[in-house]
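Hello,

Following up on my earlier ticket. Below are the two sequence lines again, exactly as submitted.
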Amino acid sequence: MHVVYPAVVSALLFSIGVYGVLARRNTILVLMSVELMLNAVNLNLVVFDVWLRDRLHSGQVLTLFVIVIAAAEVGLGLAIILALYRNRATVDLDRLRALAEFPVPSPEDADDHLPENATEETAGQASRASAATGPTRPPGRDDTPEATP
Amino acid sequence: MTDVPSYLSPTGQEIVFLLLGVVAVGAALLVVTTRQLVHAALWLVVCLGALAGCYLVLTAEFVAWVQVLIYVGAVVVLLLFGIMLTRAPIGRAADLDSRNRPVAAVVATATAIVLVTVVIDGFRTAYAPLEPGGGSAREIGSSVFRTWVLPFEVLSVLLLAALVGAIVLSRTDIRGRR
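Thanks for your patience. The regenerated structure is below:
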């Protein structure tokens, strides 16, 4: 087996994963693309282990470790996505652009998202309501009861 | 590695590997371009299964079965659960792609060109003769439990911590400290 073939397949898979991470909006699709990139790395590890005839089998063992870490990553990532969905009622990465706790809707944000549905309004209401109670109150999950569908 | 066989007379293993690789790359392209969310997860199954076949051809049997068990069995099911729990649109959705899609295509194409060029240039003369048995469960198991015991145990603790974290994150009745 020429080493070039698996290496080229792995490079193509990695760049497809890069495209998916950059171009997708849904967070779960971004996670899938990250999985594609991890699999490209795994293929590289396996083929170089076979090529170099490692006596310790470090490439294949490291592949197993990467698979386990990917499983843990997907579990945690989905838990984070579900918490995000409970708070904001969307998993759309283009709409999740608030870095602070209480986002103040700016006018450029308003005309930035013309095809809006009710989620931005509810988020705005929630931010106003929680801002009215005072900035010292931490944003619990119950602050946005209308965001839960 | 001095006598490299010609590229013009591929062996049967190489043909099988290339076919599986074409399936994997095509399924991966469909994962990142399809307009239906559930179909993306199912194409991911095809891609990961083809990669498991690639591992089998490369004589890494144990890794191949672990790939089938964990990736196809667990990770994709978790992703499907995530799709269901976030009430994603089942069926054709128009807004799965972001607006920076052309930029992403340019970046991905540049990455592909650079990587493929470097890889072909670097490993043109590398040849790995395949001998069965190098990646069997016996070999990998003795390697894991003889040489790699400490990382293995650390990894199990990491997995436990990740699962506890996932439970804490997804329960709603655990509140933060005031």
